[in-house]
Amino acid sequence: MKYVTEAVHASKTYLEDMHSEAIAMTSAYDFASAEEAAQRFSGTQTGNVYSRFTNPGVELFEHRLAALEGTEAALGVASGMGAYLLLGLTFLRQGDHVLLASGIFGTTTHLFKNIFGQFGITTTTIAASDLNAWSDHMTPHTRMVIVETPTNPLMEIANLRQLADIARKNNALFVVDNTLLTPVFQRPIEFGADIVLHSAGKFLDGQGRCVAGALAGRQEHIDRLRLCLRTTGVNMSPFNAWILSKGLETLKARMLLHEHNSLQIYQWLKNHPAVEQVISTFDENHPDASLIASQQKGHCPIISFRLNADQAGTLAFIDRLGLIKRCTNIGDAQTMITHPATTTHCRYPAEERNLFGISDNLLRICIGLEEPEDVIEDLAQAMSPTHPQSTLRVG
Ligand SMILES: *Cc1c(COP(=O)(O)O)cnc(C)c1O
């Protein structure tokens, strides 16, 4: 065999005794015979055909996620928004209606309202906690109900069990975006959700390495979604699937540490005179504290707080931070801070922002895995009234 040919064909059996999973970077698969190829294509034999359809590395991630969410099956997708796109393309038809919780990820609302809106799908947005409004706005055409709980950055809570009942009575699919809590702290399927969605590049990866998405639920639903994925091509990359499979191995350990660290920072912020208000599910006076206790097993490390400052003072505070990263992402080992009014919510008019509570002095911090003392030290120096550039009002 010529070396060029050997370089192309040499066997990769050395991977077999690898302890950690190999990355299944392959686009296609070899068939043992022409007959097998024919059977795989006709569907009489299950097996890999092409990585837009299935990939062993992606299947490993799907298997692990389904187990964690306590459901039959899962589907890896290119991104969280790709997962929402599949949901709409698979389950909605012209004339259908979708109920969305207000305060969910802005791009999700944009996708359903404006993009799917082009194809005759209508939406209604409802405050998560207003249960009567959910029933009132159900129509015979309502096919899907989408919530996030808690919402980001204002930590509103949706009652999963009651919304699942309302959706089921009306034959609508109940979809829960579980990106913020992950199955470690909340398993929506147990409360009656039909489908759980993840922006998997957040806590599931946990180290800011990739953009990815996932859906989990009953086999019949995942099968339909997978058929749509094969045709639309929003498949997960095998490399990202490997990152995520390894991420899931440490998910519980990371979430518990995120929670432990964020509780300390929450308590510190609550007692600081330069802080006007702290918004977190740790708050015993949260309007849905009992619901939080009954449906969450833990708290997401996102804390929102309002400074005693105007917008300029709030932005100057962010610029004085050293350790804490100025980054609009969430779910990372590194603590990150963002100013929603000028970033994630900048497209909303000022009156609407203020109405929803996205004030000019609101900040959102997502606590990472550093020693909390170091995060507190950074916050403290930037909040200090003796800081040469400080304009914060203390007390
Ligand atoms: C980031 C995010 C999304 C969008 O996911 P992508 O992976 O960025 O496409 C959806 N929902 C929530 C809650 C998110 O935080």
Automatic annotation (TrEMBL):
GO terms for cellular component: cytoplasm. Its EC number is 2.5.1.48, 2.5.1.49. It comes from the Bacteria. Pfam families: Cys_Met_Meta_PP (PF01053). Its cofactor is pyridoxal 5'-phosphate. One of its GO terms (molecular function) is carbon-sulfur lyase activity. Keywords: Lyase, Pyridoxal phosphate, Transferase. InterPro entries: Cys/Met-Metab_PyrdxlP-dep_enz, PyrdxlP-dep_Trfase, PyrdxlP-dep_Trfase_major, PyrdxlP-dep_Trfase_small. It is an enzyme of class 2 (transferase). The modification N6-(pyridoxal phosphate)lysine is found at K202. GO terms for biological process: transsulfuration. Gene3D superfamilies: Aspartate Aminotransferase, domain 1, Type I PLP-dependent aspartate aminotransferase-like (Major domain). PANTHER family: CYSTATHIONINE GAMMA-LYASE (PTHR11808:SF80), TRANS-SULFURATION ENZYME FAMILY MEMBER (PTHR11808). Belongs to the trans-sulfuration enzymes family. This is Cystathionine beta-lyase/cystathionine gamma-synthase. It comes from Gynuella sunshinyii YC6258. The lineage of its organism: Bacteria, Pseudomonadati, Pseudomonadota, Gammaproteobacteria, Oceanospirillales.
